[in-house]
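Lab notebook, bench 4. Continuing the backlog of folding jobs that were queued last week. Each job is logged with the same field layout so the records can be merged later without manual cleanup. Today's entry covers Endonuclease/exonuclease/phosphatase domain-containing protein, a 232-residue chain. Filled in by technician R.K.

JOB TYPE: sequence-to-structure
TARGET: Endonuclease/exonuclease/phosphatase domain-containing protein
LENGTH: 232
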Amino acid sequence: MVTVATFNIQHARTEGGTVEPQLLGKACQELGASVIALQEVDRCTTRSGGTDLTALAAEATGMQSCFGAAMEMEGGEYGNALLVDGDLGDREVVILPQTSRYEGAEQRVAVLAHVHTAGETLTVGVTHLDFRPALAEIQLAAVLDVLRRRPGPHLLMGDLNLPPSVVVPAVEAAGWSATAGLTTFPLRHPDRTIDYVITQGLTVESLHTRILAVGDHRALIANVTPSHAATE
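JOB STATUS: finished
OUTPUT FIELD FOLLOWS
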């Protein structure tokens, strides 16, 4: 069994509005997961005090890490990160489709990697999709397409900015499975399911959320095991 988690950290911002990088390290420790997908991650930006948040979280947890930049920001970069308690192998940052440009628009990316952890070998993806539903649907399809070209079993985690009514049919049509039913946003009184653990060749045995010291989402944590549907 592998414990995995996805967590939108909002660049280590607290409910009080301060940015506290050290609290991010503690939060990642508290997840108790072997694979952690982080979204809204700063690397050496002014707003995060020049801190490489991925490196900080990796040092705090003793995990291997990789960062995928989506865009330049405040003297640094902003994107997604993956932490693994084990071996982090071949990795790739995939640029997702963007249909228009407007002031403040964010490029979206997916970070993909081959990992070995808790006795299992997986292909893992972490992403944060656009807030515009039509574009997020296109980006989800693009992520699934590139993931399926890699060896299974597969795990995709992240903030998809889409409801289960859209995500579940799209994922099932591709032969995958998606968690649904647990609300993760906003933090204190969540009424939206936008964070997901999506699997192919894996079974989600349990699922729960957790409030941590940073971020405006609840972290989503799952225990997954290999299923007979795994394919290479």
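OBSERVATION: The chain has one domain: 2-226.
SIGNED: R.K.
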